[in-house]
Amino acid sequence: MTNKERVLTSIRHYQPDKIPYSIDFTQQAHQQMAAYYGDPNFAEKLDNCFARLLVLRGDAWRETAPDIWEDEFGVQWNRSVDKDIGVVCNCRITPETLNEYVFPDPDDPARYAHFSAFIEAHPYHCVEAAIGFSLFERAWTLAGMETILMAMIDNPAFVHELLDRILDYNLKIIDQACNYPLDVMHFGDDWGQQTGLIMGPQLWREFIQPRIRQMYQRVKAKGKLVSIHSCGKVDAVFPDLIAAGLDIFNPFQPEVMDVFAMKRQYGDRLSFFGGISTQKTLPFGTVRQVKDEVRRLLDEVGKNGGYIAAPAHAIPADAKPENIAAMIDVLNNQ
Question: Hey, which residues does 76 pair with through a beta bridge?
Answer without folding.
Answer: 70
